[in-house]
């Protein structure tokens, strides 16, 4: 079943907490949301109620909730469900930003709904939302180590300087379409992002 695009009211950046994981590949989603908060003059503040860092900013004339879970990746759903329930935000209005092994560094892709694709953060969010998969995703390519057994170590390490530069470029291109996403112009955001991060 095709998921209809909705204006985005909540953006979640996935990552792992703690200094050991800062700027690692698995934290690409968190990196984007932290930059978005700064760009919109918001402050991500610790919230025990939401199991993470949260901020409220105005973008495209709308209130937008930002969230960085401070649980570990495989418990991301605890934070997402708590904030969504409190503010009565439907899954269709949530954008989850995460690292993507199946895309090369420098590539970013928007996706409506779907499975977890083996990503533990997405897996837990789907479960915490009552098995609802109909939230939007922003997939930031980090590349693949080439063998499944190497994935766990790969995502928890920092990218090479060259790959990180590409990832940062994809994050910048993604930030440039946030206005369209929040205002509900999914098609325009998708066209712009997908053409600028090939």
Account of the 3D structure:
The chain is of the alpha/beta class. It has one domain (10-196): Peptidyl-tRNA hydrolase (Rossmann fold, 3-Layer(aba) Sandwich). Helices cover 35% and strands 21% of the residues. The protein is built from seven helices and seven strands; from the N terminus they run E-H-E-E-E-H-E-E-H-E-H-H-H-H. Strands 2-3-4-1-5-7-6 form a seven-stranded mixed beta sheet. Strand 3 and strand 4 (62-69) form a beta hairpin. Helix 2 runs parallel beside helix 3. The mean pLDDT is 95.
Task: State the CATH class.
Answer: Alpha Beta
In CATH terms, the superfamily is Peptidyl-tRNA hydrolase
Q: Over all CA atoms, what is the radius of gyration?
A: 15 Å
Listing every helix as H and every strand as E from the N terminus to the C terminus, the arrangement reads EHEEEHEEHEHHHH
Count of helices?
7
Helicity level, as a percent range? 25-40%
Q: Report the end-to-end length measured between terminal Cα atoms.
A: 27 Å
Q: Which runs of at least 5 residues are low in confidence (pLDDT < 50)?
A: none
The major pleated sheet works out as: 7 strands, mixed
What is the arithmetic mean of pLDDT? 95
The total strand number stands at 7
Provide the spatial order of strands within the biggest beta sheet: 2-3-4-1-5-7-6
Shape: globular
Gross CATH architecture: 3-Layer(aba) Sandwich
By secondary-structure content and strand pairing, the structural class works out as alpha/beta
Looking at the structure, the CATH topology is Rossmann fold
> What's the domain count?
1
């Amino acid at each position: 079943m095709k998921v209809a695009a909705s204006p985005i009211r909540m953006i979640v950046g996935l990552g792992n907490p703690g200094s050991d994981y800062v700027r690692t590949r698995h934290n690409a989603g968190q990196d984007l949301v932290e930059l978005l908060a700064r760009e919109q003059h918001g402050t991500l503040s610790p919230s025990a109620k939401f199991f993470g860092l949260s901020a409220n900013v105005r973008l495209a004339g709308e209130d937008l909730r930002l969230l960085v879970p401070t649980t570990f990746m495989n418990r991301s759903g605890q934070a997402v469900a708590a904030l969504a329930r409190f503010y009565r935000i439907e899954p269709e209005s949530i954008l989850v930003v995460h690292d993507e092994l199946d895309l090369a560094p420098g590539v970013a892709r928007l996706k409506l709904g779907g499975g977890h694709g083996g990503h533990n953060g997405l897996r837990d969010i789907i479960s915490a939302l009552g098995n609802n998969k109909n939230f939007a995703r922003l997939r930031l390519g980090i590349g693949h180590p080439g063998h499944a057994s190497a994935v766990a170590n790969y995502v928890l390490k920092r990218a090479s300087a060259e790959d990180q530069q590409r990832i940062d470029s994809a994050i910048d291109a993604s930030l440039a379409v946030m206005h369209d996403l929040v205002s509900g112009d999914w098609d325009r955001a998708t066209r712009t992002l997908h053409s600028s991060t090939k």
